[in-house]
Amino acid sequence: MDPTWTTTVLLVPCVVVLTAGFFYIYGLVTGFLSKTCVRNKVVVLSDATSKLGKGERSVEDECCSVMRWFFFSSAPVCASVFHKGGARLILCGKSWDKLEELAEDLTGSSDPSVTFPPKLVLLDFSDMLSLPEAIVDVLDCYGCLDVIILNNSLKVKAPAQNLSLEMDKLLMDNNYFGPATLVKGVLPSMMSRRTGHLILVNSIQGKLAVPFRSAYAASKHAVQAFFDCLRAEVEEFGISVSTINHTFISASDATEASTRKSFWSWFFIMRPHGVSPGEAAAEIAKTLGNKRKEVVIAPTLPKVAVYARSFFPNLFFALMAAGVNHANVSVAS
Question: Staple 175 to which of 219, 297, 318, 319, CB 3.0 to 4.6 Å?
Answer without folding.
Answer: 219
